[in-house]
Amino acid sequence: xxxxxxxxxxxxxxxxxxxxxxxxxxxxxxxxxxxxxxxxxxxxxxxxxxxxxxxxxxxxxxxxxxxxxxxxxxxxxxxxxxxxxxxxxxxxxxxxxxxxxxxxxxxxxxxxxxxxxxxxxxxxxxxxxxxxxxxxxxxxxxxxxxxxxxxxxxxxxxxxxxxxxxxxxxxxxxxxxxxxxxxxxxxxxxxxxxxxxxxxxxxxxxxxxxxxxxxxxxxxxxxxxxxxxxxxxxxxxxxxxxxxxxxxxxxxxxxxxxxxxxxxxxxxxxxxxxxxxxxxxxxxxxxxxxxxxxxxxxxxxxxxxxxxxxxxxxxxxxxxxxxxxxxxxxxxxxxxxxxxxxxxxxxxxxxxxxxxxxxxxxxxxxxxxxxxxxxxxxxxxxxxxxxxxxxxxxxxxxxxxxxxxxxxxxxxxxxxxxxxxxxxxxxxxxxxxxxxxxxxxxxxxxxxxxxxxxxxxxxxxxxxxxxxxxxxxxxxxxxxxxxxxxxxxxxxxxxxxxxxxxxxxxxxxxxxxxxxxxxxxxxxxxxxxxxxxxxxxxxxxxxxxxxxxxxxxxxxxxxxxxxxxxxxxxxxxxxxxxxxxxxxxxxxxxxxxxxxxxxxxxxxxxxxxxxxxxxxxxxxxxxxxxxxxxxxxxxxxxxxxxxxxxxxxxxx
Amino acid sequence: xxxxxxxxxxxxxxxxxxxxxxxxxxxxxxxxxxxxxxxxxxxxxxxxxxxxxxxxxxxxxxxxxxxxxxxxxxxxxxxxxxxxxxxxxxxxxxxxxxxxxxxxxxxxxxxxxxxxxxxxxxxxxxxxxxxxxxxxxxxxxxxxxxxxxxxxxxxxxxxxxxxxxxxxxxxxxxxxxxxxxxxxxxxxxxxxxxxxxxxxxxxxxxxxxxxxxxxxxxxxxxxxxxxxxxxxxxxxxxxxxxxxxxxxxxxxxxxxxxxxxxxxxxxxxxxxxxxxxxxxxxxxxxxxxxxxxxxxxxxxxxxxxxxxxxxxxx
Lengths: 652, 314
Prior knowledge:
The structure holds 2 protein chains of 2 kinds. Chain A is of the alpha/beta class. Chain A is 48% helix and 12% strand. In chain A, helix 4 (87-123) packs antiparallel against helix 5, helix 9 packs antiparallel against helix 11 (267-291) and helix 17 runs parallel beside helix 18 (510-527). Chain A starts with 20 loop residues before the first helix and ends with a helix. Chains A and B meet through helix 5, helix 6, helix 9, helix 10 and helix 11 of A and helix 1, helix 6, helix 7, helix 8 and helix 9 of B.
């Protein structure tokens, strides 16, 4: 039995603006057939209960000993019981017991819980702490047992029991209301009201309470469902209404005693309880989605998942990696889209190649598609994104044609990745040794023991001090820099051919950054692996990369060797990025910033240069058509004016 | 860890205080005095006053409370007003039935809820996931005692696979014990199982969107392995918390479900005592029921501490 009064709603949720409320509720019920059915059933129960004397076909207590245990018929729609009383009439009249009883319970709970929550939340301090301790204490008690005990002391009365249950449930409302108060207490308009000298009750009830109404209404609806179940249980054990008055619970008591004679008697009252409780819950859920914000994102999964290839083969020059066996990785025409079909393209025709031991930097501002490119290559895009085209050849195999299972075997073995946030990227519930062991056991088939000792060696190799001891530590016991070393150890455990490093030093202190970069460079040459180094920082890229692709708005705008790029930048965007580096201006002068920001992907044009709006050199020719990526002076550039601009530069 | 344990035990003090106050006040909520209940309607005022004095009911309330509390702390819960039997021994006779039902029900609920929740999370929005959404709504709305009756009809009345009534102590015959309580425990387990399944599904979904799951997948763990290892362990904490929440409700439900099977548990004892105004028994039962729930919650809290290394190691 779900006799639980749990705090269903988070404190931080606040209700929506009042003027749209009614429309939102109507729309929600219209769009959710289950909720609508629940509302209709509840309305039916309420209306028939109110008009019971007129609606019910018979007197609920009228006995007809000639028609006992009559099955359903036109005469008695739901049959009769052992005394020949009409079941349908009794069901209808029983609504007059259940609904008011539940209403009393909810009324007491709201009437006491909400003011208490408002007060302690607003006053705060010691009172708040004492009240919350008591709330926890009360919520931990078995409510039904206490209700029965109070009935024992005060005498059999459903009202006594429901008031007791309401008092217990008020703790949940106090907690909920207090949470909302805490969330809004420091808002400027509350301060404003205080400053203009509004009285505390005025502030509480006029300014604070409206924020809590949505969550309270939802919680009250769910509590109503619980109270209906309590009433049924109490009446069933004979401590609710007294015979011959009908209640759904007491009808089941009669059915229980006659179960050998007529099992059907147990069905209608039980269904009445089930449907009514279910209706209250469905209405509560619908009200929550209409009234309470912040819940929508909760259940939504944005899980890392291999991107599905929609149109993997595009017309155009096919790249066969067999022609270039020295290449570890060849990315060709990679496209990633987010959202529905066709969705918004966030990575647009990205391609590059990597030889053994070679490192490519992928640079650009946030929102340029760098990380999406990296995640696309390893096929760990978020659930909302998918690969829509291109090829990713790794050691001669197109990763985009592999099954999920084949891809699992590639990740961690041939291709590995380290992430921006080492703290979030290690599972807090497992030791670091365990997590470094993971790929060893999975790919190399090592035993737990072997994997552990190999993991310790790896941790030692990434210069984690006292590796053997620290392998037993949990992530929360290590610093950010140490955690990134652990991540590197886990990534390199199976000596992959390709390491993808997605902003691996961005979240770290500057002093630690350098050490991590040195470590990566050292391990790269030791293992001879290729590396994709994603960064927004050209300075860092200069230290570690052999070549660079510059991305803007999902496209590669320039691709060049590292020296070439720094000495002769071809694309204006690259130039602007270089200007933001410290050292590009004389000491003392402020660093340059690129004005504006990358527009959101749905605004990226397809018929003109995407950077033109932010470019100092833009001319009408730039917005005539989409420039193609073409070879210019040993680089690839996506600027139609590259030669002109270079010429101007040289004249200067 | 010792610190955690201490703070958990200390956190029980307010709960125990609330329980003791509520329980103590039951006696004084009663219309008429206990003495008049014992002595019946024919008693003279003098007789009532004398018995009140003997029972210590003429002292100030605070003194009575302290006396009652100190007795209760030593396990003395008084004796029945009706037959003078000690409350503790009466409860001891009836408790095993109810506890069997409640603990078995909770055990089943945990298994059902976890298995279904994990299965649904393995394929989000798959058929099973969607079916479970509907099924859990029903599970949360169905009264346990009605479900018990629905189980009795086919399994005990029509086929006699299970007994419709009767309890065998576990010490006498464990198999018959289980046979006797099975239907009741299943009926009790459905609502908490529905809640646990929902929470497991939800907790797994939010854990699986964490960065560390993506990192684990980048090391080659399949989605299923990542869910069963990283997802499950990290989700276990919210799920375990919800279990302790539901035990209190399940215990109350067990008192009612007993009635369906005519079992002589503490539900029976409580109903009889309530009808007879046998307040010391009602008080004793309230204290014991609250203690059992509190104890289970404490165990869960400790278990929770064991699960979370951030609590355990510091």
